Amino acid sequence: MAASGKLGRLRIGVPALIPRSFLAELIAQYRNDYPGINLEIIEGTARDAVMQLRANRLDVAFVAGTPHLSDCHTRPIWSEPLVAVLSNDHRLAGQSTITWTDLVGETFLVRHGGTGPQIHDHIMLRFAGRWPAPSILRFDVERGTLLSMVGQDFGITIVGGAAALQPMSGIVFLPIADEPKPFTFTGVWSPFNGSAALKNLLNIADRMKRSGDSPCQLRGGDHPTG
User: What are the tens digits of pLDDT across the range 96-107?
Assistant: First the structure.
C-alpha cells in the first residue's frame, strides 16, 4: 500500500491555505481519496519552501509565480486573478473594476511571508517607468492582519482572487481590468522524489485543472464587500 501511495506521509509547503480555494479543495480531495496518508502542511515563502525541498524536508511546494529552477521539477497547477483590496472608505471603493493607473500614488502593504515577495515584485513590475514610484510597506504579519490594516486605511494591497472567498468587514476586493493574465501558482518538487503519494496528489491536481474546478474566478462586478 505504501508503494501505491495509499499509506505513508506527504509534506506540502504552501503560501496559504484559504477555505474554498483551489489548493484547499485539492488537499480536501486528496485526503478523501487517500485517507491513509499523513499530510504535513507547512506555510511559508517560496524561497523557504524551495530551500526545504532541497534539504529533503518537503515533498512538494506550491509557490506563487513561475520559478525557473534547474534542479527541480516544476508544473503550473492553478491560477487566480489578481485583485486590489481597498478600505470601504477609499475613493475607488465604489467602482466595479480598477486599473493600475488608478492606483498610481497609493501606498501598498505587502507581507514578508506567504506570497508577499512575489506580490512586491509584481507591483514594482507594473509601476516600472511610472511616476511617482510606488510606496510599498512590508510587514511581518499574517494575511488576515494585513487585510485588517487595509480596512483601517494603512494603505491598499494586492492579493490572489482566492482571498476574496472570505470577505471581511471594512474592505472591498476589486478586479484589475488591465492585468494581462491571472497569477500562476506552481508545483515544485525534487526530480529524485519517486513518492507515489506525491504522484497521486499531482494527478488529482491535473484532473481538477482540466475539469475547471477552480473556485476563485472573479469577473468584473463580482467584488465581494465586507
Answer: 999 999 999 999
